[in-house]
Amino acid sequence: MEFALFSHVPWPEGTNPKQVYDDITEEFQLGEELGFKSAWMAEHHFTRYGLGAAPMVLASNILAKTTTLRLGFAVLVSPLHLPARLAEEVATLDVLSGGRVDVGFGRGAAGSEYNVANVPGEESQSRFQESITMVEGLWTNRDYSFEGQHYKITRANLVPQPVQQPHPPIYIAATRTKATQEFVAGTGHPLIIGVVLDTVDALNLCHTMVGLAKSKGNNMTMDQIPFFRYFYVAETEEQAKADTKAALDWNIDMIQWRRTFDVGSEVWEKMEDFRRTRTELPPSYEYLYENRAFIGDPDQITAKIKALQDEGINLFGCNFSFGGMPQDKVLRSMNLFAKEVMPAFK
User: Fold this and answer.
1) Cβ-count burial of 239 within 10 angstroms (0-12 exposed, 13-18 middle, 19+ buried)?
2) What's the pLDDT at 275?
3) pLDDT-derived band at 263, boundaries 50, 70, 90
4) Which of 150, 118, 173 is nearest to 317 (CA)?
């Protein structure tokens, strides 16, 4: 079993963006020391849900302060980018890092992000497919030409070329949209599983995609799929719950809140005002604890991960720093995980 870190770089009210960036950098540096193979972060725009608005800048800073840790994107929202520019920036990161970059692509989940990027939401699927095709094409071909519905390029030669050959590893997110599932299965690239699906549903999706890829002549296997969970380990279950409730509540409330905006965002609003006026509740903390998050004592966490391993999962990602979790608790939990849980999987 290989272990990874993940963060969507949350920015709750009352926290300083510079401190958030410093904290995630410290977390990833410690992860390298503790033996995590990779660390992944999400791209988000115009929302407190995540400060990953400039993913290449943040990734460059972290890569410069680490030496062996792989840095992954989970995910880059490719329809919001010019594909040629995206191909250049990732390739540059790959060169600067000596080939330590992994790339996850996704369509994103918030209409407000498409609005501010001036990309019609109804074009997201076609732009998604074209952009990934074009990025991979630029990474692997000389005199590359492409003409699609949205993008066109003629006899382009990418500078610089990525260090990893034939290109940095590609992973693609899919959930319930059939068109996305069909596309992912047809590319030959592994699925990537984020934190927002219940664990049972996420595993079912993995098995479905492995079978769908096989039907298209591609060999996607369970052990290729990065599998991320909200994550926290403490000395006791009671302590783990006490440490995580406020942060996980903030996180799930923010997911609900940001989806209410087609234009604008929640950045200058108060979450407490939203909580008082909303008419529908998101999943409860207890529901998330039972069905989505991996939170508990070392023995509980070990059992949960072993259950995933029995399903064929080999790359497990820990989202320690969700919802503004205090940094001292994040680092303490990481150290306890490395001491009490990691050895069970060597």
Assistant:
1) middle
2) 98
3) confident
4) 173
The DSSP H or E segment spanning 140 is: helix 124-140
Q: What gap in Å lies between CA 13 and CA 272, rounded to an integer?
A: 11
CB atoms within 10 A of CB 228: 24
- pLDDT on residue 176: 87
Cα–Cα distance measured from residue 211 to residue 64, given in angstroms and rounded to the nearest whole number: 39
Phi-psi region of 174 (alpha: psi -120 to 50; beta: other; left: phi over 0): beta
pLDDT of 325: 97
pLDDT score at 262: 84
Written as one letter, the residue type at 249 is D
Assess if CATH 1.10.10.60 describes domain 2-345.
Answer: no
Alpha carbon distance 346, 266 (integer Å): 44
Nearest by Cα to 12 from 267, 293, 260: 267
Q: What is the DSSP letter of 177?
A: -
279 contacts: CB under 8 Å, gap ≥ 6: none
Transcribe 102-116 into DSSP letters. Answer: EEEEE--S-HHHHHH
Question: For 180-239, how does the pLDDT look when each residue is reduced to its tens digit (9 = 90+)?
Answer: 999 999 999 999 999 999 999 999 999 999 999 999 999 999 999 999 999 999 999 999
Looking at residue 30, its pLDDT comes to 98
DSSP for residue 224: G
CA dist list (Å): 132 to 35, 164, 269: 31, 17, 35
For the chain, what are the domain ranges?
2-345
The answer to whether residue 116 scores a pLDDT higher than 80 is no
